[in-house]
Amino acid sequence: MWNTIVNSTPEIFWAGIKFTIPLTLISFAIGFVIAVVTALVRTSTPKGNPVVAGLWGLLKLFLSFYVWLFRSTPLLVQLFIVFFGLPNIGIQFDAFSAGIITFSLNTGAYCSETVRGAISSIPDSQWEAAYSIGMTYRQVLFRIVFPQALRVALPPLSNSFIGLVKDTSLASSITILEMFMVSQQIAAKNYEPLLMYSIVAVVYAVFCTVLSVAQHYLERYMSRYVQVTGE
Amino acid sequence: MIKLEHVDKQFADHHALNDINVEFPEHETTVILGPSGAGKSTLLRSLNLLERPQSGIYQINDEKVDFSQELSTSQILRVRRKTGMVFQSWNLFPHLTILQNITEGPIHVLKQSKQEAEANATKLLQQVGLDGTQHRYPSQLSGGQQQRISICRALAMDPEYILFDEPTSALDPELEAQVLHVLLTLAQSKQSMIVVTHNMEFARRVATKIIFVEDGKVEFDGTPSEFFDHPTDRIHAFLNGMQF
Ligand SMILES: Nc1ncnc2c1ncn2[C@@H]1O[C@H](COP(=O)(O)OP(=O)(O)OP(=O)(O)O)[C@@H](O)[C@H]1O
Ligand SMILES: [Mg+2]
């Protein structure tokens, strides 16, 4: 048994480095950008020009539909549609791209609600104070609102991030050779499914624990200006 | 010189500013008085364009704003450059240190160098008696200290006018005195100021001009001695209402 562990763990771990971690990092990065853009569009209303306002309204409607769609269907089904379904209408992706697209859109939909909540939790008085010293909309957003909103959003965003690490195991079903797929393949050869799936579970747990620890320190850093106890 | 002509602001269900015609002289301290809900904050915030009246003309030195027209972003920014604002609840940026709170505008709006902005910020902190707090966060200071910092933040932009909206209403009397002392010093240095306050002693001692607002209208526009020593019946009632 010891031999089996020593032989297969590096292989599973390597699959994690090659596929699980890149899938997670790239998807989360893209998903986060989608989330911020979606949240910003959905919380703002341009004034003036009625044509612009109309188009903006349509865009908002489309984004609400997108968020609804990805939050109300299973991730596994989304993966199947993108990888196995879309080729039927002539849209073909390799497995890795299909994974990135689906995970990004899914993460984007969930995180956009988080980001939206965090941005609207920053009081109007912060916007006003920043405007009163002559800042532009973008400056207020990037220098005053985002840094404060990020602190609020960090715990739920970390949840989504850690969730995504584990959800990438679903990519095995669209032929991506990530950790879970590799452990399945080894189990099929050595008839040790309990051992193999336990090993992969431990590797997921190690990745997630590292992230939780990082989250803890990040939270502490971002809350450095918050007074916990009274003076 | 700030000059308002026929300025009108209508909220959904309230006529907050009703044909305002008034001047705020340079290098003087104009105090705006009036009962709660009179429209004092709306008037003051209009000068900083945080509130947008529907009509009227607003002239601030060489800049003319026609409220009935769409304002361009650059015009809004120009007006805000000329007007600093101090809020009732100070609204410092909690995630920035005291020094960063003061240098944020100079560095990113005025494009000053960091050294220049920080040297100036330190000078301002000395003026309000808070040198040494540079690297603390707002949440580590008392309300009175935070309000003095927010005055530094406004001053650092070197605005032509500073607008104060009840700067001491959220403070205990002792802390209020510290802030009023800073305002008094500013007034003596001929900084152009417009102050909304409920502190009658401040109005009497520091104001060079009083504006009394009620129901969105300017009901009095004159000197403190006229206001306090020869009040109309309405002003008399208002002043009596301020005492118990
Ligand atoms: N955003 C808003 N929407 C609707 N009505 C508003 C809004 N802001 C202010 N008002 C109304 O306009 C009137 C004037 O408000 P304003 O805040 O200017 O009064 P104020 O003189 O500053 O009062 P206070 O001394 O209580 O601060 C009030 O009746 C208020 O209810
Ligand atoms: Mg007010």
Would you write up a description of this structure?
Chain B: This is Cell division transporter, ATP-binding protein FtsE. Chain B: One of its GO terms (biological process) is cell division. Chain B: Residues 2-240 form the ABC transporter domain. The complex is a heterodimer of chains A (231) and B (244). With 231 residues, chain A is mostly helical. In chain A, 79% of the residues lie in helices and 0% in strands. Chain A is built from eight helices and no strands. Chain A has helices at residues 2-43, 50-71, 75-85, 95-120, 124-132, 137-167, 179-190, 193-222. The model of chain A has no long low-confidence stretch (mean pLDDT 93). Chain B has one domain (2-240): 3-Layer(aba) Sandwich (Rossmann fold). Helix content of chain B is 39%, strand content 25%. Chain B has a six-stranded mixed beta sheet, with helices on both faces. Chain B has a four-stranded antiparallel beta sheet with strand order 2-1-4-5, with helices on one face. In chain B, a hairpin with a 2-residue loop joins β4 (55-60) and β5 (63-66). The longest helix of chain B has 16 residues, at 173-188. Chains A and B meet through α5 and α6 of A and α2, β6, α3 and α5 of B. Residues 11-12, 14, 16, 34, 36-42 of chain B line the site of adenosine-5'-triphosphate (ATP).
Helix/strand layout:
The complex is a heterodimer of chains A (231) and B (244).
Chain A lengths: L1 H42 L6 H22 L3 H11 L9 H26 L3 H9 L4 H31 L11 H12 L2 H30 L9
Chain B lengths: L1 E10 L2 E11 L4 E5 L6 H8 L7 E6 L2 E4 L6 H10 E4 L11 H11 L5 H14 L15 H13 L5 E5 L7 H16 L3 E5 L3 H7 L2 E6 L2 E6 L1 H6 L3 H9 L3
Parallel strand pairs in B: 3-8, 3-9, 6-7, 7-8
Antiparallel strand pairs in B: 1-2, 1-4, 4-5, 9-10
Helix pairs in contact in B: 3-4, 3-5, 5-6
The structure holds adenosine-5'-triphosphate and magnesium ion.
Magnesium ion (MG) binds next to helix 1 of chain B.
